Fold this sequence. Notes:
single chain, six-stranded mixed β-barrel, two-stranded antiparallel sheet, 10 helices, elongated
Amino acid sequence: TDEASRQFFERAVERIGRIPGVTGVALSDRMPLTLNIQTTDAVIDGQPTTDPRSRFIFDTTQVTPPYFETLGVPVLEGRNFDVRDVPGSTRVAIVNRTLASRVWPGQSAVGRRLRLRDQTGPLVEVVGVVGDYKIRSLGESPRPFIHFARTQRPSGTATILARTSAGEAALVGAIERELRALDPDVVLMELQPFTGAMATSLHGFAMGGWLIGGLAGLALGLAALGLYGVVAFSVSRRTREIGIRVALGADRGTVVREVMREGVVLVSVGVVVGLGLAALGATALRGVLLGISALDPVSFAAAAAVLFAASAIACFVPARRAASIDPLKALRQG
């Protein structure tokens, strides 16, 4: 029943909050950065629905008051949910900064009213504004988001979010023990650290990264193979010249260095041009780069180093072959 559900979650939050290392516990019907997507459309109270500017679609969730503190999201204006927000009271909501600035630009959102769906739908009063945070994916731009008070519309299911100053893995086991102690038959879904929960939302980024990495590896292999072919062909054209130099006393190490230098010059030109094109391409991928800038110097330096290393290996084989040329055979070939 609804009452049994309410009591269960109250006791669950209380017990989990007493676990050593837990610094915050909250309930929500939606975990950020997961595939659980919920939206609603709303209109500004009092404005005609024929005006397209009065109708909006928002991402939504229902939360308990400690939600924002648990996630580390600041309340910028107005108030948090509290004991006033119970079933039967005026329905309230807390919006994020992006929603507030989009719907009421240059004005305070606190005290404003929305109606869900249309002008005959439920009336909702905005009582607070919180900072923006990632909702669907780490690479997204700030998205309009509206939070409703879970205490006004209790549910039989919930996501429990717990913040800890200790290790995540140890906390997961402790939470499961506390919930099983409350009800051995309770159904627990996806009990895991938050990093594991958001792995699904990062799956597309990871697959894209593996695909791009595979194509980059293929391109590197083709570049090394092409460089080897160019240097080997150049050596074959200079067989007589190299043979004469060796016959006149040229050091074989000098021959290797000269052939290697030829390959390094080709690679250097390619790296300079490639880095310039990569910088232009990276700016277009800025929105899907997580944790690094589009012009990350470490990534660019590592790519150049790998290319130089591959080219050095590709050049060494024909260089070694050139240094081992028999002068008499080289002269006869000429």
